[in-house]
Amino acid sequence: MTATVFADPFSGRETLLIEPSRGPRVGASYDPRSADLPLAWHIDCPHCTQLRWKSGLTIHEKREIQIARCREAGYVPTHGVNSHKYLVPTNCHPHVVRAWQKDGTRHATVRGAVPDQVLKVTQEPRGSLAYEGNLRNFRAIETNLKRYLRFIFSARALTRDELSALLQPLVVAQRSRRPYRGHHKLCDMIDWEVTLRRELGESASFRESN
Known about the structure:
Elements: E1 2-7, E2 14-19, E3 26-30, E4 39-42, H1 46-49, H2 59-69, E5 72-76, E6 81-88, E7 95-102, E8 105-111, E9 118-123, E10 129-132, H3 139-153, E11 156-157, H4 160-176, H5 192-200
Antiparallel strand pairs: 1-2, 1-11, 2-3, 3-4, 5-6, 6-7, 7-8, 8-9, 9-10
């Protein structure tokens, strides 16, 4: 199981991505400064991932979920480091972003509709984004490019304790909720207790909150 959290640089909200050893990818969108219940999302739920469906998620949060849900692990042989590939949604052709980190500096390449058009991006620790290439070839995402690249660069792995603490409210809320009948959303049907027990081990305990 891999649990990764991404941070939106402007709103401060975070997006959790859980890549389980078995089953579909799921996660949650939440504000770490708030005690509000995290909003669950499911990789196959249109309410979470499609802009035309109404939900408690903003357009930016849905786009960030779209970016996180399609993450693919890879390798950059020229640099000898592991990388991840993301698809950044636009109003037309999605842009492919491959990101990695080396010696504290974050790197990414952005490819648009034309494969030979490549934008190289770097970010020093606590520094601003630096571009190498023609930004005009990426007008489709130029407005949100900074936001989504910073979102991708913010990725960090969660510890078992952090994941358990983050999902504990969802487990407790699910226990106290009435069973769903009739039509339901996939994001509402995620069994968080089973997910935690499966990924953290059957010995994981869950305390009730008052």
